[in-house]
């Protein structure tokens, strides 16, 4: 317990610092109210608005742990959302709609996984194929227009509330918990990390790397499908041109802010979703602070740069060096004093 | 004698069919938005109504595709070319080729940086004027009390965002009771509109301090309407909503009383273009270099349900 807390401590401290910074510009940021049987306030908005990136980050963490990357998740969001909106507006019930949307995500994941694990294409290239072509697939489903629907049961996934919390927030927290437990209470997590550290060695050690890789990309597709459902339900319409546009980059950023190495190996899902919340806090904070739009991306880039510099391994090393040095000096002076006394 | 008569008749007949069955090439940017799709649909309809044979080419957002399409139109010897240019620069040589082949080119919706003599005319809407029409509606309908306005801007730096912001400010200038208190980009998307509106509502006392919303396009307004509803306010009543574009879904919102007004960016650019071409062909009338389409204001009084029905199949 303590060890996992110390793993995510840097992310929690960063999140706290960003929240304090935003509160300095917009004092009402930390206020949470309770109206019409739901919690309201900027922080609740962050939890809800950050849901798509947090969901994507869960799957992306696993993919990156295997030394891969999935550029297609934003597009898979658009495909799943388009299929969901099409299914619900053509009169299929909620359950078939969800099954179709989630199935589409899994299928996209299977495609990516096969390209990477069976055919052996570099992950960045393999997933780039779906990233560029997938939006066209989504547009074919929506026929190039914004496919709207009014079914309240599907809309619940975007704007409904559960125990006063927005449903998207509940969804990502639950999914993060489930995936973490699945990875850490079984050997799955270790196996995924083993592939990332050295795929051939892990294969020689008896890990079925091929099946596991496909499963990991399917998990990323599943997370993207959930994100697509949330985003589509949120605006009650599938916008194939814009749903999930560039969100794969935010998801990768969340994983990186979460301290996970792009070279694979050790991973922490908790840290990644906190990374997603850091990004969303910055986004929401910029909106609330009321700066002109021209500054949005500049401020975001500046803050992200600071966070990454502070977290950089080189800096951490010199920080450790300073800490060790001061401890050694303390010990030396202690010894010296002891000697003096005796 | 009979033979020569018949030949003359055949020639006359041939000439008239040639004259009436015009061939026009249309190089479209692509189908990146619903509006673009509607423009394509309406251009096809307009051509069909006038008995024009329309050769359609989709450039899929690439200028080289458009240039290739224009060259092939010139090679086929079409009677005229409609061009919706994807970018403003780099058209000089291909327009020169069309001019040398004596094929008039009409620009649709967007302009180019080339010399005016290289094209017959440009049909388009005045973006600043659209903003002015929207602003004027608010000036007429906000009443005398203090009105705090929030603005959802288009993509930062894009010309519609800049011009529609400017036009709105022109219209409300000098009205001391109208004030734009918050302005932020929603990237022309529904998600963007909803997210930014949520932050406006948080920042402005749960939305109670906001009197009106001006959105640079309908999609952002539709996203914002959902945010307002989820905040427990009544869009259209508690917060007046005016936006631009006149896409079908905003008419549905107006029919439900959730939006107040929209300014039409008509997708019918081809109609005026064909009119100008016809006049030019019949008696050589040189049209003005810019034909401005009407920026019509629609409110809840304009039978929004009927407007929705009329537009929903245009491909928006």
Automatic annotation (TrEMBL), chain A:
GO terms for molecular function: transmembrane transporter activity. It holds the Pfam family BPD_transp_2. Coiled coil: none annotated. Signal peptide: none annotated. The keyword rRNA-binding does not apply. One of its GO terms (cellular component) is plasma membrane. It is found in: Cell membrane. Its main location: membrane. Keywords: Cell membrane, Membrane, Transmembrane, Transmembrane helix. It is a multi-pass membrane protein. The chain crosses the membrane at residues 12-34, 46-65, 77-104, 110-132, 211-233, 245-263, 270-291, 297-322. PANTHER family: ABC TRANSPORTER PERMEASE PROTEIN YPHD-RELATED-RELATED, GALACTOFURANOSE TRANSPORTER PERMEASE PROTEIN YTFT. This is ABC transporter permease. It comes from Fulvimarina endophytica. The lineage of its organism: Bacteria, Pseudomonadati, Pseudomonadota, Alphaproteobacteria, Hyphomicrobiales.
From TrEMBL, chain B:
InterPro entries: Peripla_BP_I (IPR028082), SBP_2_dom (IPR025997), YtfQ_transport (IPR054837). It is found in: Cell envelope. GO terms for molecular function: carbohydrate binding. GO terms for cellular component: cell envelope. Residues 294-316 are annotated as: Disordered. CDD domains: PBP1_galactofuranose_YtfQ-like. The keyword Protease does not apply. Keywords: Signal. It comes from the Bacteria. Transmembrane segments: none annotated. Pfam families: Peripla_BP_4. Residues 1-21 form the signal peptide. Residues 25-269 form the Periplasmic binding protein domain. Belongs to the bacterial solute-binding protein 2 family. This is Sugar ABC transporter substrate-binding protein. The lineage of its organism: Bacteria, Pseudomonadati, Pseudomonadota, Alphaproteobacteria, Hyphomicrobiales.
